[in-house]
Write a structure and sequence with these properties.
Blueprint (H helix, E strand, L loop, with lengths): L2 H24 L14 E2 L3 E6 L5 H11 L7 E4 L10 E9 L7 E7 L2 E2 L5 E2 L1 E8 L6 H15 L26 H11 L6
Parallel strand pairs: 1-7, 2-3, 2-4, 4-8
Antiparallel strand pairs: 5-6, 5-8
Helix pairs in contact: 2-3
Length: about 200
């Protein structure tokens, strides 16, 4: 190998090592140019949830587990108590019929009993995945459940069509979070690294 090729290889190695050190040691999550997140959020990242009566509890459990263990500042915990006022996130999955053809889901955010917008602080969220004829398989239903819980955690729809994300609107067979989704959660809540 000639000297120029060796220098280029050495320089690229140093650059890659620097990037790896920054990500692993310093826990940087800003590896993307833009993070599409809401300015508002839950008052705390420690959220209790429960599937609404008649709702699909296994969907709720799978969806909440997708968002857990990414940020040490976010934990969605199953609520075992009987006082429904203590539930932060109500998972209403595969129960209600879609109000409009093609509407897959919606999330409502509340504080002190009233609806709030995505720039506010909220203390409650009602995540709904509709029982829609648009769904072709279980993966698409689960993707919508994960997507709606993402909204409750301040994740917004990406404004860039080239971004691969569970937060994109529409049908998708995979409900797995992408690196981008994980980076957005850490960007919003801190407490982790995307690697």
């Amino acid at each position: 190998m000639n000297k120029i090729a060796q220098r280029i290889k050495r320089t690229l190695s140093v650059i890659m090592i620097s990037i790896i050190i920054e990500i692993y040691v310093f826990g940087k999550s800003d590896v993307f140019a833009t993070y599409y997140v809401f300015s508002g959020k839950f008052a705390s990242g420690y959220v209790t949830y429960r599937a609404v009566s008649g709702s699909n509890a296994s969907y709720a459990n799978i969806a909440r587990n997708c968002w857990n263990n990414i940020s040490s500042n976010v934990s969605i915990i199953y609520y075992t108590g009987t006082n429904t006022n203590d539930i932060d996130l109500a998972a209403n999955f595969n129960k209600l019929q879609e109000p409009t053809a093609g509407q897959l889901g919606i999330t409502f955010l509340y504080n002190d009993g009233g609806l709030v917008d995505t720039s506010s602080i909220w203390t409650k969220a009602n995540c709904i995945q509709y029982n829609s004829n648009s769904f072709e398989n279980e993966g698409q239903k689960l993707k919508t459940c994960v997507h709606e819980i993402g909204h409750a955690l301040s994740m917004a729809h990406p404004g860039d069509a080239s971004i691969d994300s569970v937060m994109k609107q529409g049908l998708r067979n995979s409900y797995a979070l992408t690196i981008y989704d994980k980076a957005c959660l850490i960007y919003k809540w801190g407490g982790g690294s995307v690697c």
